[in-house]
Design goal:
Length: 273
Amino acid sequence: MPFHYASAPRAAPGPEDNVFALQEAKVWMGVPAGAKTLPLWSEVKALLPPGASPHHVGKLGERELWALEIPKDGPEWRAQDFEWMESRALMGLLPAEAVQALCSARQLLFWEGRSRFCGHCGSRTVDSETERARKCPDCGLVAYPSQAPAVIVSVVQGERLLLAHNKNFRPGLYSLVAGFVDPGESLEQCVVREVAEETGIRVDEVRYLASQPWPFPNSLMVGFTAQHTGGEIKVDGIEIEHAAWFSRDALPDIPSHGTIARRLIDTWLASED
Ligand SMILES: [Zn+2]
């Protein structure tokens, strides 16, 4: 079931096309007999007010795929064998290609909703006829879908891993240090800075491991490993409430499968020191 992103989107869906209807972090999914299926446009259209138009995302398997943002203050949606599911939970349940499609859908909707006016002169923008972009008819600015790069890093000290509890986490959950890349900064510089700012730890040997789109709302997470070279743990107490070195046999509650954080932690768990 390959997914192909559409760099030049179509104008209107067909009744047999698939659609991701998104309401904040939730996705409208078919759940017949416990399965997870994408709704058809005809099934979603029946729940919508007249005139609602989805955005073309690409092609998933044999069907064109669309995305549509559903306002939270509208009428409640009810349909036999359909329900709202959490995006994060779905990312651990759907095949990899469908997860990629969901990430594209979420990020495109986020961008579409925030590119209606020109960021330079304030005029109302229009869709480009040749590519996925919004054009300003007055000053000519072209705005493309954008992502915010962020780093996430497994910092190792001997046989122990650095994990931190963010104030926004559920109680007891620990994860890797992460943060957004500053303008003009390399990914490696960002790793060194974020670890120092959040935990007081100095690192080197920064190595790329993997990346993952993280559409909450529009990040691209870039995963690294690094080695502790000095410094004692000292957290800011504001964003990071607690951080510590953990050994393999005494790990706290960690992020679930399907996240790049878990992939980095699992890679460390399987590695030889
Ligand atoms: Zn403009």
